[in-house]
Amino acid sequence: MSTSENMQTIAAPIDQDPYLWLEDIDAPRSLDWVSERNASATATLGSSYEFALRKSVIKEVLDSDDKIPLVSSVGGYLYNFWRDADHPRGVWRRTTDADYRSPDPTWETLLDIDALATEEDIPWVFHGAEILRPTYDRAIISLSRGGSDADEDREFDLTTKTFVPPDHGGFFRPESKGGMSWINRDTVYIFTDFGTDELGNATLTSSGYPRIVKQLSRGQQLNDATVVYAGGDNDMYIRAFHSHTPGWERDFVARSLAFYRSELYLRTTDGLTLIDVPLSAEAGVHREWLLIETREPWVVGDTTYPAGALLITRFEDYLAGGRDLTVLFEPTSSQSLAGASFTKNHLVLNVLDHVKNRVEVLTPPTDRAGSWERRPAVALPAMGTTSVSGVDSDVTDDVWVMTTDYLTPSSLYRLAVDDLTVPGGLGEPLKTSPSFFDSSGLTIDQYFATSKDGTQIPYFLVHATDAPRDGSIPTLLYGYGGFEISLTPGYSGGLGRAWLDKGGAYAVANIRGGGEYGPRWHQSALKDQRHKAYEDFSAVARDLVERGVTTPERLGVQGGSNGGLLTGNIYTQYPELFGAVVIQVPLLDMKRYSHLLAGASWMAEYGDPDDPAQWEFIQRFSPYHLVEPNRNYPPVLITTSTRDDRVHPGHARKFAAKLLDYGYDVTYYENIEGGHGGAADNDQAAFMSALAYEFLWQRLTPVTTPDGDKS
C-alpha cells in the first residue's frame, strides 16, 4: 500500500490506548513484560551457534587493538578515548605527537572508566572531556549512568589524575541533561536542571533541556551563581561558551528555539548583543571572521543568498552594521556543503557532489580589497568518504584527513593544508585500520531510483562482483532520512563479517529528509511532506528488485531512531516490498511523541500532534496508529534501551505489544543499558548487532525442509 493510498483516518479514539502502561519505564509490570520478551528473543535468536559466532566476530572487531585511535590535539598532547577487550567501558588517555607517529605509541592513562564504575558501583559511560586552556592542567569530565543523555560533570586534575572534590573547591554539575564549560580556571558556565527558579518555574524546557545558563565561580553554591540568560519554556536548549583563541577571546550565549532555528549572542561587560542573522541560519565566529550558513533564501539589500550557501564577513564590521558578505559556497543541483573547518590561516570546505566528497582550500585576502583564494584539493581519493579537519586552528595549519568507503578500511593522515592541493601530497597514511573481511570479490555501485514524484534518489549498493542478477541475493537496505543528516560510505568490519562475508548485499538509500543535497533535500520531507521520504525508500527497494539484485522475500530493511520511524512506516505502509524489518530505538507513536522525553524538540521536523490540523497529516506516518489486524506484515525485530532518555522506550514497547496481540511475527529485545545508542560497551554493542543480523539472515534465507516447508 502506497502512502497516498494509506490516508485513512484512525478509527479508534486516540485517548484510548490500552498499552499506555508500558510508558512507565521502571514499573514492575513493564519490566516483567520486557524480561519476558527478552527471554523469548534470546531463546529464539540468541541461543544458536550461528548467533554466537556472529557476536564473536563483531566483538573481535570492536575490541581490536589495531583500530585507529582517533585523537584531539590540545596543549601539546593528543587525547584519545579507547575501548578494547580489557577496557570494555574504556580509558581516557593521551600521548605526544611524536609518540603517536610511531607504530606502537606509549599511552598515559588519565581515567579508567571500568575502574571508576567498579569503585563507585555505577555503570559509568564516558561522555567526553573539555580541557582548560591555556594551562591544560584541568578538565571537565562528563559521565553518564548507563549511557543516558543525562550526565554529570566533574572537575579533573590532569596532574594528579584525580577528581577535584566539590568540598575542596572542585566544580561539579549534578546529573541532568545539560553541560558545564570553562571560562577560566576559577569560573565556568553551567546550564542544567536548577530545580525551580525564584518564581517557581521549571529551569528545563518542555523538551527536557536547559532553559537557563549561569556563571559559576569556584567555591560558589549553584543557587548563588549568576544568571547569564534565561530562555522560554518552549525553547529547546540554552547554553554559553567561551572562545579561548589567543587574542580573540570572546563569550557567547547560544539559544536554540527549535531544530533549525537559533540565536547567537555576543556577551560582553555591556550585556548581550544579538548577532543579527536569520533564525534558520547557522552562525559561527572564528578569530576576525563571522561564518553564516543559510538554510533558507536570505535577502540582504539587493542580493538574495540561496539556501545552503556559506557566507563570510568580518565579525566586528557586521556588528557595526556592515553587510559586505562574501559567498564562499553556493549549492548546485548536485552539490551541497558537507562541512567547513578552519586551520590557523586557511578554511577547508568539504562539499558533497552526488554524495561524493570534494574538498577546497580557501585562503583569506591579505587586505580588505582582496579576494579569497580558492584551490581544489587534488590529493584526495575520488570515491568514498573524505573528512578534513584542522588539527588545532589556534596554532597550526596542519589538518587531519580521514578516508574510507564500504570496502576500504579507514586511513588517517596528518599533513600541512597546502599539501592537499598538490598531486601526491597525501603521502603515506599515519594510521590505517586493519581489514576485517575479504573485500576482494566485492564491488560498490551507485544507482539512482525514481521516486513517485519523479525525483532521482541516489543509493549505494555493495555486492559480490560476479553475483548473478537473478534475485537470489539476501539484501539489507539501510536508511535514515531526517534532520539533514547525510549517509556517506563508511567501512564496517562488523557488517562485513556478519553480512557481506555470508553472501549478503548491502544498500544505503540517500532519501529526502537527509542532508545529501543540502537544506532543500531535508526540507522537502518535513511535516506534511514526510511521506516523500518513505516513497523514496520504497522506490529504492523496487529498483533493487527491478535490477535483479534481490526479491521482496529476500530484501530486509534496518533503521534506528528517526530511521526507526522510517522502518516502522515501511513495515506498515509497504509490507509487500520486504521480507524482514528491523526497527531500532524508534519513534512510532506520533500522537504521543512530543510529550515523551526530548520529543517536543522535534516538532520542527514532524509537526505538532496536539494541533488537530497537523495531526491530520502526522497520523498518516504514525506506525503505532497505522498498524491493522489481518494484514500480511513481514517478520519484525524491534529493539530499544531502557535507559534511552532521548527517544522513550515506550514507543517500541507499545508497538511490539500491539503487534503481538494482533498475532504477528514479532521479536522484541530491550537492552537495560545503552541510552539512545542502544549499548553501553562493546559486548552489548556486539550482542545487539548480532541479534539484528541473525534475525535478518534467518528470515531472508529460510531453510527448506524435505517436505517443502520453510523454517
Amount of beta strand: 25-35%
Count up the helices: 14
- What does the average pLDDT come to? 94
CATH-defined superfamily of one domain: Alpha/Beta hydrolase fold, catalytic domain
Question: Which spans of ≥5 residues are poorly predicted at pLDDT below 50?
Answer: 1-14
Which sheet architecture does the biggest sheet show?
8 strands, mixed
CATH fold label of one domain:
Rossmann fold
CATH architecture of one domain: 3-Layer(aba) Sandwich
Q: What's the count of strands?
A: 39
- Taking the alpha carbons of the first and last residues, their distance comes to 27 Å
Strand order of the largest sheet: 32-33-35-34-36-37-38-39
Q: State the share of residues found in helices, binned by percent.
A: 10-25%
Shape: globular
Structural class: alpha+beta
| CATH class (first level) name of one domain | Alpha Beta
Work out the radius of gyration: 26 Å
InterPro entries: AB_hydrolase_fold, Pept_S9A_N, Peptidase_S9_cat, Peptidase_S9A, Prolyl_oligopep/macrocyclase
Organism: Jonesia denitrificans (strain ATCC 14870 / DSM 20603 / BCRC 15368 / CIP 55.134 / JCM 11481 / NBRC 15587 / NCTC 10816 / Prevot 55134)
EC number: 3.4.21.26
Protein name: Prolyl oligopeptidase
Task: Please describe what this structure looks like.
Among the domains are: 20-59 and 436-700, Alpha/Beta hydrolase fold, catalytic domain (Rossmann fold), CATH 3.40.50.1820; 332-435, no CATH class. 19% of the residues lie in helices and 32% in strands. The strands form nine sheets. Strands 32-33-35-34-36-37-38-39 form an eight-stranded mixed β-sheet, with helices on both faces. Strands 5, 6, 7, 8 and 9 form a five-stranded antiparallel β-sheet that branches. It is globular, with a radius of gyration of 26 Å. The protein starts with 27 loop residues before the first helix and ends in an 11-residue tail after the last helix. Mean pLDDT is 94; it is low at 1-14.
